[in-house]
Design brief:
single chain, alpha+beta, Pnp Oxidase, Chain A, three-stranded antiparallel β-sheet, globular, oxidoreductase, Pyridox_Oxase_N, General stress protein 26, F420H2_bilvrd_red/Heme_oxyg
Length: 171
């Protein structure tokens, strides 16, 4: 993203005197987190939530999944989703929720950069083949990669407690 989002502290969910968490701090959490919870919706409207690794790159969150998996089928029908990360602590940390739309990424150059991030951060050695990730030595296992462009990001700071809403463009 070329510009920073617009931020607004939600006063009814924030302690008096607390301040907005700088966008750079939110981006740090997105960049450094290893695990996220992806929420999608099944065709019949039931929610589907799974943990998975994701990478923050160029203002978007990226994740991969097998094309046959429930989350991929859900995104095919409805690309809107939510990715959540943070801590399980009540009195410290920053929880971040990214609402947006997932689109399959096929750009070989970006996929190569993402494969390097997966390797460096998680020791997961993906290769890029035909616009997807593949496992080395198992060319039959392909994983489409999705990029989620944020429409809205919520950050929940603790100690002091505060909620900040970040919006992008017309969202």
């Amino acid at each position: 993203m070329a510009t920073e989002p617009t931020s607004r502290q939600v006063s009814e969910f924030s302690e008096p005197g607390s301040t907005v968490v700088p966008w750079a701090e939110v981006e740090r959490v997105l960049r450094e987190s290893e695990m996220f919870w992806l929420s999608t919706v099944r065709r019949d409207g039931r929610p589907h939530v799974v943990p998975l690794p994701a990478m923050w790159l160029d203002g978007r969150l990226h994740f991969c999944t097998g094309a046959h998996e429930q989350k991929a089928r859900n995104l095919e029908a409805n690309p809107r989703c939510v990715l959540t990360t943070g801590t399980n602590s009540y009195r410290s940390g920053l929880d971040v929720i990214v609402e947006g739309t997932a689109a399959q990424l096929r750009d070989e150059k970006t996929l190569t950069v993402l494969a390097e991030l997966w390797r460096d951060k998680l020791d997961w050695p993906f290769e890029v083949a035909d616009g997807q990730f593949s496992d080395p030595g198992n060319d039959d296992h392909r994983a489409p990669v999705y990029a989620v462009t944020p429409a809205k990001v919520l950050a929940f700071g603790k100690a002091p407690y505060r909620q900040i809403r970040y919006t992008f463009g017309d969202s």
